[in-house]
Amino acid sequence: MSSRFQAPGSSPQVEPTIRVTEIFRSIQGESTRAGFPCAFIRLTGCSLRCVWCDTAYAFSGGEEMTVSEAAERVIALGTDLVEVTGGEPLEQEGVYPLMDRLLERGKTVLLETGGHVPLDRIDPRVVKIVDVKAPGSGMMGANLPENLDSLSGRDEVKFVLADRRDFDWALDFVRERDLDDRHVVTFSPVWEKLSAADLAGWIRDSGRPIRLGVQLHKLLWGDVPGR
Ligand code: SF4
Fold it and tell me: Which of 102, 121, 180, 208 is the most exposed place for a label (fewest CB within 10 A)?
């Protein structure tokens, strides 16, 4: 999507637009930056349907705005750290100029992606947090394992796990690729489905340097939009 504008004396240009569900300031809850103030921009739409998805409200609706307006609204929140999330942010073309603008303004940009869209167009300065979908998500077939080969050492890999079967599958996946040698690998429990304490014990006993993710924002405020 785009909108047209014309400065006096110039030819028409196309201003890219983007559909946005919410823009808000909160505490980073999930990555290795968990605990830091962070501005979030949640883009609308996702072609997957993970069984346990906690952002189904971002599948549709939202507000169409220009990329510059979206970037200025994020920047106005005044944090050094910003996260572009969804929905699936990489399903909108406008996400690329959006990330560029945030980088140009000196922001540390985190991108949360479901892992089913190629990552080859993303500026290397963006820190990618890439999901690998476990069987309990119902979306395992959407994984693009080749995406993991293109990650830098700053990028992170996340598995959201619903039960012990998911854990065993994810551990095998990590071991086969030595993923935890090259990246921070986080295992997070599905909210109110798998006990964080159980998952912590399994990680401890695995002997692998895997990080437990606990969705800090939900522990603080519960499972509500905009926090
Ligand atoms: S990829 Fe993310 S937004 Fe899309 S259905 Fe799965 S959890 Fe929800």
Answer: 121
